Amino acid sequence: MKNKIVIPMVLGGIICIYVLYLMGWTPVYTLDDAYIVQHSVNNFVNFKSESVFLDSAKNSGLTSIVHVGLITLIAFVFDTNWSQFLIASLSYILFLVAIFLYSFKSTKNIVTSFCLTLLAAVSGYVIEQFFNGLETGLLIFLVTISLILFRNGVPQQKLAFALLPVLPFVRPELSFLSAIICVRAAFFYFKNNQKSEFSRAFFILVIASAMVAIYAIILTGNILPNTAGAKSYFFAESCKQLDEKIRVLNSGIGRFLSSLGVLSLGFIAILFTRLRFVFLTFISIFYILYLLEFSGGIHHNNYRYQYVFYAFAIIGLIDFLSLNLVAKYSKYLSLLMLVLGLYSVPKNIHNLNTSIQFTQNENFTVGEWVKENISKNDVILIHDAGYISTVTNSKLVDIVGLKTSYSAQVNKVTRLVNCGNDPRAIDAIATKFNAKYFVVFGMWDDIFQLTNSLKVMGWKVEVADKSRDGAAYRVYKISK
Known about the structure:
This protein is mainly α. It folds into 2 domains: 6-30 and 62-343, no CATH class; 356-479, no CATH class. The chain has 23 helices and 5 strands. The protein has a 5-stranded mixed beta sheet with strand order 2-1-3-5-4, sandwiched between helices. Strand 1 (379-382), helix 19 (387-391) and strand 2 form a beta-alpha-beta unit. Helix 1 (6-22) runs antiparallel to helix 4 (80-107) and helix 20 runs antiparallel to helix 21. The chain is globular and about 75 Å long. The protein starts with 5 loop residues before the first helix and ends with a strand. 49% of the residues are buried. The mean pLDDT is 93. This is Glycosyltransferase RgtA/B/C/D-like domain-containing protein. The chain crosses the membrane at residues 5-23, 61-78, 85-104, 110-127, 134-154, 174-190, 202-224, 252-272, 277-295, 307-327. Keywords: Membrane, Transmembrane, Transmembrane helix.
């Protein structure tokens, strides 16, 4: 087994190097929010308080304090940009190692294990999700480990319970997965009359929970992040008609499954395994909550939020192929699935490369324009609050509210109450902070009518970056 572990490590290493090649040998992240992480890590490493965003609560805008904490530790030694890439690479390689070892233990077949590991490595947008600069890859890895450790109800080692309180601080949705796994474990202990075992497990759970909660309070001043609330107020989808939300949700689920290709069969396969209760309960809670609060969110960033289920699909396939009736065919079935799965890889790599180039050509160039052309005394309204915050000394106001608390409060009583676009929201935010410029992605501007809202409320809106004509991100000079 020690010799075989080299297989997933080499596979993961090759793919990490290839991704770095696509990035131009310097890490580039496809999501602007990744640079909010960098901004916060830079503050931690330099022991600085918030100096760019106005009305920003302590380290606000952080969804995953576990992810940020890991990057910060490495950033004391390496550059923040590279630290982010190292955490992504480590998560990816460890994920593949976990899948390979679990598959080999279950199927006892090296060919099956390799095929399933490679399938897990490249299906859907998983490479992009691991290297988008956010916590998605770390989430996939930790969910995989949790499912493996608690597959039989209770783990062999009680220390595994210390992992469960960590999950909600990787992404808040994982609090439900942790709770489900805990309830299932408690059921197994009491069913087998192992109350003393339960007491020891519960003690570890409580201690770990307390430690993570203290860490969260020290880092952000709160146990729960503000990001979900801020986004729900801005996008204002909870108030929409139920039939419309169901349509949007169904569309997002269908597109996610389609993007996974043959791996999506794992969601059927897992129904024949010991993890079906965990899967069915968690997936039901997840989609009901998104249906009620943020149905459009499951479409965002190539279905990023739905990748919380990625581990279930691959674990489902492994467990299914290890069933007695199927095991003797596992090698041939896994080979067939791999061939079918590899069919979509070129398209997905092309999409990844396009996203990398977009960041380089759009986020980087608008950031440099702002840095060179706008005074540090001027206040800038921004919708995407990431990359610009890492290069400018100007004061920034995040109109979504991830970093600027006042924006979230305004969106809650305007956009959310009126179920969508409300010109008073951006007007109130711009007026309070005496904003002079507005940087916005054209697509979001069209959807949310942001510059038009400023005009409706009496603002003069002029294109400031005329030299960047045709760019996706535009800079407007605003005055009233």
